[in-house]
Amino acid sequence: MTDHAAARSILLAEDDELLAALLHDVLASAGFAVSVVHDGLAALDVEKPWLAILDVNLPGISGYQVCHLLRRAHGDRLPIIFVSGERTESFDRVAGLLLGGDDYLVKPFAPDELLARVGTLVGRRTAGTEAPARRLTARELEVLVLLAEGLAQPAIAERLVISTKTVSTHIEHILGKLGVKSRAQAVAVAYRESLVP
Description:
By secondary structure, the chain is of the alpha/beta class.
């Protein structure tokens, strides 16, 4: 990762100073330049980050608000990872993804897991991707819309008059093409890219 990471800056917004220092050292050892801030407003002053890691519960303004403002300033190419030790339920993670996060880590997490997720997002940004809408088939878009409506696989199969196995295959293709690992992340991308109403 170090070759790809060189001269690429990470915004780390974390109010726990001990954890922030640990994560700074982990990321710096992987070759990243890390700007550490301890509140939401300070996060907005960091110029042109390559990737942002945001604690959800920041003083000043929340990580969710920071994410929204970063998205307005930098668009969708800025990878954003939420971290939280308090908002750990599945609906918290889904909310973070729907609000514009690319990933969501629940504390405590292993530093290696953070590095792996950072590496994946940096690699995706470096490679660049075409718009997801151009890569999904019409049927895959139908499945994605129904996922966004909250339907389970059997209900999608019934609605589209196909087998649940076929639905599962379509979902696998959707996740791969959108570069995400879960249905919640796929739905988040679908809303962000206006693929679903």
